[in-house]
Amino acid sequence: MGKHKQDLVEVVLTCGSWQEAQRVADDLLQKYLVGSVEFLEVEAKQWRKSGLAGAKEVKLIIQTVAQELEAIEQAVTALSSHNPALQKTLLA
User: Fold this and answer.
1) Which residues are within 8 A (CB) of 12 and not within 5 positions of it... i.e. 6 or more apart?
2) Rounded distance between C-alpha atoms, residue 34 and residue 60, angstroms
3) For the segment 2-35, what is each residue's pLDDT rounded down to a tens digit?
4) How far is the first Cα of the chain from the last one, in angstroms, to the nearest whole number?
5) Domains located in the chain, CATH noted
6) Prediction pTM value
7) How does DSSP classify residue 62?
């Protein structure tokens, strides 16, 4: 019996709050789109129309397979308050 090779991918996504991060992670895990999700609280600085602004955000570090990326992007778009520009890295 041959093994089916799947490309492992790490996806990084930023959420605006812990509640949103939990909601996104739970949805992805319950739909079996991801294998695991790690949470990191970060402080970010950004340019706004009014100048520099700081914000507390939560980064999700998600492990999945490449075949699920489109479904993940669709799910995150529906749940996230941020523009879901997912950062993807192929894992060896």
Assistant:
1) 59, 60, 61, 62, 86, 87, 89
2) 12
3) 455 689 999 999 888 899 999 999 999 999 999 9
4) 23
5) 8-90 (3.30.70.120)
6) 0.79
7) E
